[in-house]
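Hi support team,

I've been running sequence recovery on a batch of backbones for a student project. Most finish fine, but this one hangs at about 90% for roughly twenty minutes before it completes. I'm not sure whether the input is malformed or the queue is just slow. I've pasted the structure tokens below so you can try to reproduce it. Let me know if you need the job ID as well.

Thanks,
M.K.
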């Protein structure tokens, strides 16, 4: 079992205070303005996945809430695939996480089925320093609260460039089909971390505007469902983005018919620090 490392850092470590924090994310000035309703199950509302920020909830929570509201109001998935990016190698873990809300269990059957395909292997140590997966778990548990929280199962994956993305997508689809399960995908990422504190200062003038233009170029390619062009864009523009591999994999795996941008802003709009800031986007794959 994995102990929460981000408790008291990204989010409150006490469940009652965490409730208050997440409620504020949904109802606050940059949030969607209301809590999500129960899963509707309407065909037109079915969500294939979301892209949400991975940062402290008091700043990124409003943006994440837009994406999670859409997810909460779709159909209940059998499993939630949470994909992060590794700097070294790829792997999955079958170990559960503990958060202030309790345990988040891994779908053992799906994990073992995927491992048996041979494209990706179990690597528990790979997740020891990761923050991307855990950053999403309390928000995910929150939207499951009124919809049978015991049904929540995840499949955590960390990806690097050592795994053939298309083959892994085929393996995941085959594993889901064999087990008769449906899934959604969550990709945690910030878009651009700008400033001396983040060792990224490519713009000498109008950095806030330039970062938006940079991010928009990336988001346009995501919305056009062009994973190869998106990866090329990130590389050519040397973007300071945590999880571009996860985004590309989500597009390859889910092949969304439509991707909507629900919310976008930067920390500079919250704290007036335009020298060092981080940009967030909440996108929904439909």
């Amino acid at each position: 079992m994995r102990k929460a490392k981000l408790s008291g850092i990204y989010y409150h470590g006490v469940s009652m205070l965490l409730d208050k924090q997440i409620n504020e994310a949904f109802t606050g000035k940059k949030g969607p303005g209301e809590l999500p309703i129960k899963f509707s199950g309407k065909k037109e509302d079915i969500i294939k996945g979301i892209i949400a920020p991975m940062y402290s909830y008091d700043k990124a929570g409003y943006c994440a809430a837009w994406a999670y509201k859409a997810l909460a109001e779709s159909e209940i998935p059998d499993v939630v695939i949470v994909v992060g990016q590794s700097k070294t190698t790829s792997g999955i873990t079958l170990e559960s996480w503990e958060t202030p809300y309790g345990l988040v269990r891994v779908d053992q059957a799906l994990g073992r089925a995927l491992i048996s395909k041979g494209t990706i292997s179990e690597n528990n140590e790979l997740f020891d320093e990761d923050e991307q997966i855990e950053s999403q778990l309390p928000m995910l548990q929150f939207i499951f609260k009124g919809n049978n929280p015991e049904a929540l199962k995840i499949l955590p994956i960390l990806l690097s460039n050592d795994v053939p993305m298309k083959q892994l997508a085929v393996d995941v689809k085959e594993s889901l089909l064999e087990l008769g399960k449906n899934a959604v995908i969550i990709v945690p990422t910030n878009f651009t971390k700008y400033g001396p504190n983040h060792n990224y200062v490519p713009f000498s003038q109008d950095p806030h505007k330039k970062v938006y233009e940079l991010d928009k170029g990336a988001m346009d390619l995501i919305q056009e469902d062009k994973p190869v062009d998106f990866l090329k864009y990130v590389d050519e523009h040397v973007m300071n983005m945590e999880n571009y591999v996860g985004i590309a994999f989500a597009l390859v795996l889910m092949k969304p018919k439509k991707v909507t941008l629900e919310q976008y802003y930067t920390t500079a709009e919250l704290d007036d620090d335009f020298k060092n800031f981080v940009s967030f986007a909440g996108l929904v794959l439909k």
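--
Follow-up from support: It reproduced on our side and the slowdown came from queue contention, not your input. The mean pLDDT is 95. No action needed from you.
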